[in-house]
Amino acid sequence: MTYNCFDIAEFFTKLAKEEGQGIDPMKLLKLTYIAHGWYLGITGKPLFHNQIQAWKYGSVIPDLYFPIKIFGKNNVDPYIFKLYTKNKLSKEDKDFLKKIWNNYKDFSGLQLSALTHEEGSPWSQVWDGNHNAIIENSIIKDYYEHKLND
Predict the structure, then answer these.
(1) pTM for this structure?
(2) What's 44's DSSP letter?
(3) Which domain of life does the protein's organism represent (predicted)?
(4) Would you state the pLDDT for residue 82?
(5) Which of 35, 45, 86, 104 has the greatest number of beta carbons closer than 10 A?
(6) Residue 148: is it exposed, middle or buried by C-beta count within 10 angstroms (0-12/13-18/19+)?
(7) What is the pLDDT of residue 78?
(8) CA distance 70 to 64
(9) What does the alpha-carbon distance between residue 49 and residue 45 come to, in Å, rounded to a whole number?
(10) How far apart are CA 134 and CA 117, in angstroms?
(11) For residue 1, is pLDDT > 80?
(12) Which residues partner with 54 through β-bridges?
């Protein structure tokens, strides 16, 4: 099933809260994007339907960015997603997201951003200084499939 980015972001904010950790907007954006990438690489299907763009500081999901930017450098509270979440995550997808969380939860937003800027990354392939360059799922899928085989 394809979700929306808010379903995924809400899940991560709830996990963070359960573990007594915070998750600021940058970390949440990057984590949601990275989860989408790995999901594409593993299943060949998108995790969510929202568009991803290449911005100066990396891959951004505009639909998620604008509602959570109000938190600034503070932790995002899961309540913000009540207006946006629509889908119940399957057990399999929750398990997948928990694995992503466990692998990346100790990274800061800046560290995750640096990962999205690596040479050959989808962002580096499309970034040309244009703030709204679309990163197609096919590019993301190819990149994460390649990472799986490394």
Answers:
(1) 0.95
(2) S
(3) Bacteria
(4) 82
(5) 35
(6) exposed
(7) 86
(8) 11
(9) 10
(10) 15
(11) no
(12) 59, 133
| pLDDT at position 132 over 90 | no
Q: How many CB atoms sit inside 10 A of residue 127's CB?
A: 19
Residue 6 has pLDDT above 90, yes or no: yes
The answer, yes or no, to whether residue 143 has pLDDT greater than 80, is yes
Side chain identity, residue 26: M
Beta-bridge partners for 48: 3
The count of residues in the chain is 150
Contacts of 74 (CB under 8 A, 6+ apart): 22, 24
Contact between 134 and 126 under an 8 Å Cβ cutoff? The reply is: yes
Tell me: pLDDT of 4 over 90: yes
Residues 6+ apart with CB under 8 A from 149: none
Main-chain phi, psi angles of 132, to 5 degrees: -115, 25
What lies within 8 Å, CB to CB, of 26 at 6+ separation is 57, 109, 110, 112, 113
Give the pLDDT band (50/70/90) at residue 139: very high
